[in-house]
Amino acid sequence: MLVHDLVLDQARRAASRPALADGERVLTYGELAREVLSAAGHLAAAGVMPGDRVGLLLPNVIEFPVFYYGALAAGAVAVPLNTRLTPHELEYIVRDAGLSALVADPAFWGTVEAIRPALSGLKRLLVRGTDAPTGATPTAEARRATPLSAPREPVNDLAQVLYTSGTTGLPKGAMMRHANVLFNARACEQCIGYRADDVTLVAVPLFHVTGLNTQLVAVHAVGGLVSLLAEYKADRFLARLEADRVTAAVAVPTIFTLLLVNPNRPRTDLSALRLVAYGGAPIAPETVRQLDETLGVAQFNLYGLTETSSLTTVLPSADALRKLGSVGLPVPGVRVRVVDDAGRDLPAGEAGELLIAGPNIVAGYLNKPEATAAAIRDGWLFTGDVARLDEEGYVFVVDRKKDMINRAGEKVYCIEVEAVLNSHPAILESAVVPHPDPIFGEVVKAVCVLKPGASATAEDVIDFCRPRLAHFKLPAVVRFVPELPRNPGGKVLKPRLKEMA
After folding, report:
1. What was the pLDDT predicted at 168?
2. Which of 39, 142, 280, 325 is exposed most, by the fewest CB atoms within 10 A?
């Protein structure tokens, strides 16, 4: 089975069941399957061959799944592109991927024009809608094209290339096999419990591994309905939860933090919700408790990377409060280790680098054999995350190796300090980064976002932390900002915070 077969099989079993929605339109599985094969037929007629790469420069709109699955059905490789990048950043990725076709939204036509030199090898340029500029084809035409009679086989089982965020350097294209994506879909069904009657709202970008693999593909794998939110806004997200009768809400922790403080929430009918799942960044224990008290539904903490095709560990709902701070247990078929700098396994309770092995590990980085060899050794992915295992085998992610603060030889794990900061009654969320110091080398800098209507001073925050943290872990610098800078996956862009005066 290949990824697009999930949709085609659902169409054969239940053609009239709703598959996709965007707040205005709904496509059934039968309609989606027809459009997928038409998109595949159009790409094939344009000369796109198995193994060719098809870029998707689209927001969360129905055309994204149509041309994502369509590219796969044509035997091609889907390359979702970050719509938030500058033309300069995007040009690097486009050249690295070597696109044969590109599907773009009209909103990004200026970007397309700016990177034209990198698109010289295109066999087809498609623009979403019924009209297109000269030299491009409207997607409406491709969605009505003669369907491909039968899906084509991929080359080397390659399904998609997802580019890492590039927060520590140039983006790297993680090569994901069909088998990786299908394994993740099964893990979602097993560990989160997706069902055919589920409705999920995709608020994170589909070019991110969570939205694509753990929502779109995984919910389609069980025959559920995927509703798309083109752009996240707190009020819009809340309204769509009610309007779409969402049963499975998956998002980064910040979205749930904002949901809890949204003044419209008490008046919003969320009775359809049966589970929430969060990942992509640490979640404050207080947020977990408030979700339990406020929503009273099952909740799952998810941990994974682009390089693990999304899910690696899941904290079961039954353990949400018992194991606060943990990201759970490895999904079935995945193994984890915690090792020291020499590669030796560490006992329970000791922090070291987290290593992962299993069917979810990607094939490597496109065009980067040295980076692949450094990251994946003897089948083990070296994550760069510092973690520890408890006596029951539950994983606790402590920090990124590169984010750890070294204060005069004392190691300070940012997540530990952030957990204390986030328990302050006035703080909505926080991020901790190293701050240069002439005496200690580095000290702790806390960047905080206050709750609506709340106030606090730097001294208030430090005094709050004093009885809760060792002296060397106390913030020496406290800054307040309206919001934390994040990448599309919800991870805080700590390099930007380090640069703050």
Report:
1. 47
2. 325
